[in-house]
Structure formats: structure tokens, C-alpha cells
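job 3f2a | input accepted
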Amino acid sequence: MGKTRLEAFSDGVIAIIITIMVLELKVPHGADWAALQPLWPVFLSYVLSFVYVGIYWNNHHHLIHTISKVTGGALWGNLHLLFWLSLVPFVTGWMGENHFAALPLACYGFILFMSSIAYFILAKCLATNNEALRLALGKDRKGKLSSLLYLVGIVLSLVEPMAGFALYVIVAMIWFIPDRRFEHR
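job 3f2a | predicted structure (185 res):
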């Protein structure tokens, strides 16, 4: 199967995910800075999740751009990734509404962790029949490090929530720098 259908479907799902997240931002009841004060946790969680969804969208684009055809396993791998990403709006809202409380923050980290595992599986499925992608992925140290940091972030979130949140921000910053492995191929 060609890759265009998978890419179009994924782009549509990711656009819906972002739309659902932005709809969680409620308009304040007031026209002064004080009216915005209670909304900062929701907005901050939205910004972090928007960055994460953007990172996945960008890296997904790199994966798909490198291949010419898609297997059945890759289709399921892609759906697996989209499933975990579709839960980002829920944990984002829960985390923001509860001002970064321990359990919502740990669940947020769990969704990030599972998304990273799903991305890893998708990449392996796509690289099975694609030497250029396999070479571009290499040992994927950044991906493996991110998954490990998510696990640490989950534990930290339960002990010291803001330390867990800070770790999630750090992982996003690591990925915010474009992944040049694909551009060189």
C-alpha cells in the first residue's frame, strides 16, 4: 500500500488531537490579569502537550517521508501510536485542572512513555523493509533515553510532582531540536 493514505489519516487525527486540547482552554470570566491567574496551569499543560504532539507529528513526517510503501504491520503500528497520542488531551486537561497534582502528572508521563514505545514500534515496522530508514534511525539513543526519562518522570511525579513536570519539559526540549538523522539520508 502507498504511504499517502497513512500520512493523511495520521495528519487528520493529530489535527483533531490538537483541536480537542485547545477546546479545554476556557475563556476567563473577567477582563483583567487576575482573571487569567487561575488558568495558568491549564495553559501551561496545553503548551507542553502542544509541543509534544508537534514533535510526534514532525518525527512521524520524517518516518513517512523516508518510506515508499506501508505494510499491514506498519498500519497497526501507526494506529497504536495514534491511540496513545489520542489520550494526550485527556491527561493534559486532568493535569492542568488539578494544578500538576501527583497522580495526573504521573499518568501524563505514562501516556508520554507509551507514546514513545508506540513510536519505537512504528519505526521498527517501517524500517523492516527500508534500509535508508534503518540507517537513519541508527541506535536511536535519543528515543531510548526519552523513554527512560519518562519512567523516571513518572516516579518523580509521585514523589515530587514539579520535578517530574520539569523532567517532561527537559525531554521536550531535547526533541525540540530537529532530528537531523533523517535529513542527512
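job 3f2a | The mean pLDDT is 92.
job 3f2a | closed
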